[in-house]
Design a protein that fits this description.
heterodimer; A: 358 residues; mainly alpha; two-stranded antiparallel ribbon; two-stranded antiparallel sheet; B: 511 residues; Rossmann fold; 6-stranded mixed β-sheet; 18 helices; 33% helix
Chain lengths: 358, 511
Amino acid sequence: MAVEENVIEEKSNWQKIWDGVKPYILALVIAFGVSGIIIGLLGYNVIKAYQTLLLTSFTSQRGIIETLKKFIPLTFATYAFAIPFKIRFFNIGGWGQMLFGGIFTAIAGIALSGLNLPSYIFIPILIIVAMAAGAFLALIAGALKAYYNINPIISTIMLNFIAFYTVNFVATTEPWKAPLSGHPMTIELPGAAILPKMFDELHIGIFIVLIVIFLIYFLMNRTVLGYEIMATGMNPNASSVYGIKMKKTLMLTFIIAGAMAGLGGGIEVMGVHKRLIEGFAQTSGAQYGIFGILTALICQGNPLGVPLSSIFISILLVGADAMQRTLQVPVELVFLTQALIVLMIVVLRRKAGGGYIE
Amino acid sequence: MDNKNKVLEAKNISKSFGEVKALKKVDFDLNKGEIHGLLGENGAGKSTLMNILYGLYKEDEGEIYIRGEKVDFKSPLDSIQKGIGMIHQSSTLVPEFTALENLILGTEGNKMSLELKDAEEKILKTQKDFGLKFPLNTKVKNLPAGIKQKVEIIRAIYRGANILILDEPTTSLVEDEFEQLLKSLRLMVDEGVTIVFITHKIREVLQACDRASVLTDGVMQGTLDTTKASKEDLVNLMFQNQEIDITDSALPVIDLPEVKQTEEPILSLKNLSAKSKEKDGTDLKSINFDIYGGEILGIAGISGNGQKELAEVLIDPNNITEGEIILSGEKINGMTTNQIFDRNVFYIPEDRKKEGILGLGNIKDNVLLGHQHEKRFQSNGLISWDKVKSQTKEVIDEYKVKTPDEKQQIGKLSGGNIQRVIIGRALINELDLLVTHSPTAGLDMASVEFVFNRLVELRSKGAAVLYINEDLDELMQVSDRIGVIHEGELVDIFKQDEFDKYEIGSKMIGG
């Protein structure tokens, strides 16, 4: 009798896993199916297009490195949305917070260049500056919500514009601007401020991101703050009745989110461009901060899912670039696929009675 | 002849939600012009059966006949057309509309303008006929729960319902209102309306109904003629498959053992005034009382007279405008909830789903709630889920929570089991003071008895209990003293030998 019960239990566990995975698989099938039809109708070879899209990341060393290089900033941008999303607030400001991180990394890097700091001091300082700058911008939105009940969607979008024009200001103003440059950019940071390369073009930002993935997992699952964020997300009323301070939790999630985005921006400046340059936080013509929203929605803000959905979107982004280069399939078609995936996941999870978005 | 008299027959109805079988081949029928009680404990399937008859759920198998005609409801629109009206436990009215606007909402769809005058006359007549008086031009959000229910009943009748399903209509009513409602229902029955009265209180069935059917665990146990049946017959039907000690009273009888009370009060409120956190809440005005260790102080009052505010100011004393709260000799004004919980206080809120639990979380997550800062659940400053897990298992064992394991999502448990977890969580630490608000609301008898026993145990251990409840019968069962709250003021405190339902009741309504 007991054995039989166990079998039933196990079966239902598998059932649970399948129920969890099913919407994702279905969403992928439908999204790729629909975009395949469109790609076909536009007269491209669908099979070849998808081969390029999905396999470019794996077929060459360059593909792998390109994918990881996108994975780094995208993961940070994804956390920036995912963490406030846990308590059901929308941080649309990952984009601006990322820019802010980059701006102040460049300003601090240039300002400290005279001190001849060694890398192992210089880089940590700039990492802290980047995180603080992003956190500061996000905290404005968090505090506006906490004390004046202003919707963070609105405030973060507005702050994005401030950050966007601040990039242009810094990149075109003495003493930061690079002389004789047509494109808005600053002078290069000193060598000690640049993230060392490991393989080819891949810099040590990949380690930073892995450490952060671990720390965020740890924060969410083992700390009191992580528990309070989770509890608040599940039921803000009950949480506040049992002593969790809504305002504090709200502002802390925005601070963490902003720090993540800011760090992502700083790493792009320190690792990829070596300077602040207009469009430094973009890929395939769109801001990482925007992709981060999409990526976070795919994993429904689950901190464990963030790296997975980030790597998946990175693969698509690399594939999309290659598809455009080799087959002239417009990169926008891949954005369409991504948007479809997100939509389908939301719809299917909703249908299955789960999901966050209401 | 019988069949002519049947306005509704449901045969062989089964319904499952996932793996849970809510109804198992249930037969149910209604005679024209009767009040038919549907009796059962929480989670017995009463609401499910009625939601099927109302067209909200689709039965997995079975047939439904209305006046001999087979029907297949796709939505409540179909059932409303067949004359079925349902009054749900929670209000389905538009709060921003007046009662009148709510009543005609959706009924005048084919006209360009709302003919309020005609409708108003018709409604006034219905009101008068059935003795259901309420102001028509007040916004529903400003009406108390008892009145909202009247609005809903009138709405159903106005839309032509002749089979009326009332889902636990008495939960938000005081004794007086219940008797009023009963009178109105009788008047409707005289006009040929058939009424289903869902409840888990045997007393109400005997008082209100002509016949009663008993559901337990999704199985129809049978139907009795309540004019002939006794309480014992119903109890037997309800519990024939369970070994539960049934006492004569509708409520479990609790003996309060002799306990030596502490010399000093554990909690003192001195001239306490506090602002409500909610916009339309009731402010507390100059409240004075003491609770001693080993004492249960009941707080009686009609819902919305400051009970919630009283409970909340004790665990979050940050809206105090005057006076002070002394806990074990220490002034706690301005402290945080965590600081107060650290002083061996815990809270069981009124609305368990809204304020008591993280419905999406599992039992473990919920046992930790309110204890998350405590060292007992940490190692090296981090949460130790192992420790939480073993505590959760203890709670599940000790409080007999019916669940597969501690990872079960709590929102999927029944109300009684959720409450067991909430109580288990509250009693993890040795308490000096428990603040609890309607901990028995909506629970079946076995669970009510369970809750009572825990409160009395706590009292025996020398803790102070502040027990807020709108149900006077329940308060009188377990309180050492009963304070009456009215419009934010504590108007009187009765000692046990002075308990008198009429006296207390009249204080509750401001007399």
